[in-house]
Amino acid sequence: MQLIRFCGDHGQIRWGVKDADGHRDLTDTIPGVGTIQDLIGQWEEVGSTLPAVAECSSLLAGTPSLLSPVPEPPRIICIGLNYRDHAIESGMEIPCEPVVFNKLAGTICGPDAEVPLPACSKKVDYEAELVVVVGKRAWQVSEADAAECIFGYTCGHDVSARDWQLGRPGGQWLLGKSFPNFAPIGPVLVPAAYMPDPQDLCVKLRLNGETLQDSTTRQLIFTPAQLIAHISQCCELQPGDVLFTGTPPGVGAARKPPRFLRPGDVAEVEIDGIGVLRNRFVDSPKPA
Ligand code: ZN
After folding, report:
1. Are 193 and 47 in contact (CB under 8 A)?
2. What is the CATH number of domain 76-283?
3. Cα 44 to ligand 1 centroid, rounded to whole Å
4. What is the rounded end-to-end Cα distance, in angstroms, of the chain?
5. pTM, to two decimals
6. Domain residue spans in the chain?
7. Which residues contact 28 (CB under 8 A, 6 or more apart)?
8. pLDDT digits over 171-210, tens only?
């Protein structure tokens, strides 16, 4: 079972599920759960009843226009260099603790959203990532307890302007990671109980149909639970926070010659058990 957030016939925001038969609208079905964020916060109470509720609801005609499953996460936290094979590709040492950075609010967008290429960057790069959505408050939790704080998983694309990320004074990555729509997520949110083993998922990125990243979460240096336990030592995580868990090898900057994104490029992030997150890159609108 996969959760979806989508645009209704009259432009209103709806939520529901996708199953083997199609898409179902559950927005008005469960009292007190009007949004997917409500559902994340109340999952312990309502999660077990959801399959039965979904089964009794009718199928939508056709495929709805899907939106980012978590529209305004309280925090967007990201991990750098978390794949053994990517650290080796980048010529970096395997980190002994997670490399943590963040993306600003305003970067989140959904499946099929267009991503403008900023006029001030010539080196916008792609990064396919498994994204964890936090389901419970997590403050200084152990690794065992951190696993319980994971609500579910989605695909993410950590779009990165390398010329604003690297080689700048202070070494911060924030600006190069925070242009508008630089954090597409989706197309669905899969609750943890419905995911295959998150430590054994293929993670791929295709650009215009060509596979440029192809690895597996078996290569992760730090597991999602280890990451949450580590971050929660310093910052209390909240339901709806999203965590980009790092990218496998094959990014454009590491290619010879480098391959950066161009207007018209279509990137697809595909992860086992979740689906395909597709976004087109376009020229930035000209300033008025
Ligand atoms: Zn990344």
Report:
1. yes
2. 3.90.850.10
3. 30
4. 45
5. 0.96
6. 2-66, 76-283
7. none
8. 889 999 999 999 999 999 999 999 989 999 999 999 999 9
